[in-house]
Write a structure and sequence with these properties.
The complex is a heterodimer of chains A (131) and B (278).
Chain A (H helix, E strand, L loop, with lengths): L5 H12 L4 E4 L5 E4 L1 H7 L3 H4 L4 H4 L3 E4 L12 H8 L3 E9 L4 E12 L5 E10 L4
Antiparallel strand pairs in A: 1-2, 1-6, 3-4, 4-5, 5-6
Chain B lengths: L1 E6 L20 E6 L2 E5 L10 H4 L4 E5 L5 H4 L14 E7 L6 H8 L15 E7 L2 E5 L2 E7 L7 E6 L4 E5 L21 H4 L4 E5 L4 H4 L10 H11 L3 E5 L7 H14 L5 E4 L5 E3 L2
Parallel strand pairs in B: 3-4, 4-5, 5-6, 10-11, 11-12, 12-13
Antiparallel strand pairs in B: 1-2, 1-14, 2-3, 7-8, 8-9, 9-10
The chains are: A alpha+beta (131), B alpha/beta (278).
Chain lengths: 131, 278
């Protein structure tokens, strides 16, 4: 497989240094990196899982609005960013496969490289108690 | 393919008697095969490329990895640029907001230089490249952005029978060192894959690198690791630190050779060195 663009490589390196959970996806939503704080959300370690197809990681937790209604994937910031390459932000609840519920805020943004090409997306998670 | 090193010093030219073996001129390499010739970077080593007298060649292609001063300062002293009979093509990295012409003009204009870029007498053509593939003569060239401050390219040059990769300024180890074992996360690795010869940044020792993270350069150890992962056959360590003497460099290389049992050879690039690739 060819090497990732340097904008993706440097995004991973930044994520690796951050204390906020960060997901890094390719242009189709495959999770190509998540940092240590994000391992708490997914309940698995990147060293163990490696990269994950979108259909694998997107079913690892459920999203609900603040009234407990299930959110459709297309309402999530990262999915919207992947669709139209704009940044988005939303506060909602997630419930992991282990049953733990948490209110979080997510900011997502596209990675547009030097050549102007869409290369992937980043989602940053904040626990709502930090807000 | 013949590779001729005309400058291997990093950052600033040195005139120290203690650096005469590896040389004090900054980055410039001549690549030739049959009637095709490329000049890689326009560091101070470019000033002694007297092509008009040597060869009868009237078309020159100059490939710039980036526009830091140690890679362009020789342009103003390169005689074909001042000869109207020369057709000169400069290939340089595209940037987001400013043209290659505007960026080169920052150097080739007063107060830094007396002659404006637009007033050079040669027939000058500028080519903006990014993650590109193109042909010059029978050379097939692949350029790709690599990790170094500012818009910076590495080049993979394939001739009739061999490949030379030129990445004189590069910091692939920036950040996640453990990702160095996963090739798709390594900046520049595609450029260097299985090349017969790789010229790569090796400005620092591993100890010095700790104090220069993010400056855009590599340790000798990381350059060797990069070459090993890329599967190259021969590595030239380049962009020698301006404070490094020949004696110090020889001692460091001797230590590295003792520590590393590798399937490829490595040595410091030296001004005046010529390598013929089969």
């Amino acid at each position: 497989m060819p090497a990732y663009e340097i904008e993706i490589i440097l995004s991973r390196q930044l994520a690796d240094c951050l204390s906020m959970p960060v997901f890094l996806t390719d242009t189709t939503g495959n999770l190509i990196f998540y940092n240590e704080p994000a391992e708490e959300i997914l309940g698995t370690r990147f060293a163990e899982s490696g990269e994950m197809k979108v259909e694998a990681w997107s079913t690892m937790f459920q999203q609900q609005d603040e009234e407990g209604n299930l959110l459709q994937p297309e309402e999530l910031p990262l999915v919207r960013t992947l669709r139209d390459q704009y940044p988005y932000h939303k506060t909602f609840c997630i419930r992991s496969l282990k049953g733990r519920a948490e209110k979080i805020s997510v900011t997502s943004y596209p990675i547009i490289g030097r050549t102007g090409k869409f290369l992937g997306a980043v989602a940053i998670f904040w626990s709502a108690k930090d807000l | 393919m013949k590779i001729s090193i005309r400058g291997a010093r990093g950052s600033i030219p040195t005139t120290n008697p203690a650096t005469t073996h590896y040389g004090g001129d900054t980055s410039c390499v001549l690549v030739s095969e049959k009637d095709c010739m490329l000049v890689l970077d326009g560091g101070s080593g470019m000033q002694r490329l007297n092509l008009s007298q040597d060869t009868g060649i009237k078309k020159i292609d100059i490939l710039l990895t980036h526009l830091h001063l140690d890679h362009i300062q020789g342009l103003g002293f390169f005689s074909p640029l001042f000869d109207p009979s020369f057709d000169v093509h400069i290939w340089g990295p595209a940037a987001n907001t400013t043209s290659l012409h505007a960026r080169l003009s920052r150097y080739l204009s007063p107060p830094l230089f007396p002659v404006l870029l637009r007033d050079l007498p040669c027939q000058l053509t500028l080519h903006e490249i990014d993650n590109s593939s193109f042909e010059i003569g029978h050379f097939h060239i692949h350029s790709r952005y690599i990790i170094h401050p500012g818009s910076t390219l590495g080049f993979r040059i394939t001739g009739r029978r061999s490949t030379f990769t030129y990445i004189p300024d590069h910091e692939p180890a920036l950040g996640v060192m453990n990702a160095m074992n996963d090739k798709k996360w390594i900046s520049g690795i595609d450029l260097a894959a299985n090349a017969e010869l790789l010229l790569h940044d090796a400005q620092y020792t591993a100890q010095e690198y700790k104090n220069h993270l993010g400056w855009g350069h590599s340790s000798m150890e990381d350059a060797i690791k990069f070459a090993s992962l890329a599967g190259v056959k021969h590595l030239l360590l380049s962009h020698h630190d301006p404070s490094r003497t020949d004696e110090q460099l020889d001692a460091l290389i001797a230590d590295l050779k003792k520590q590393n049992d590798l399937s490829f050879s490595f040595e410091p690039a030296a001004e005046g060195m010529n390598i013929e690739l089969a």
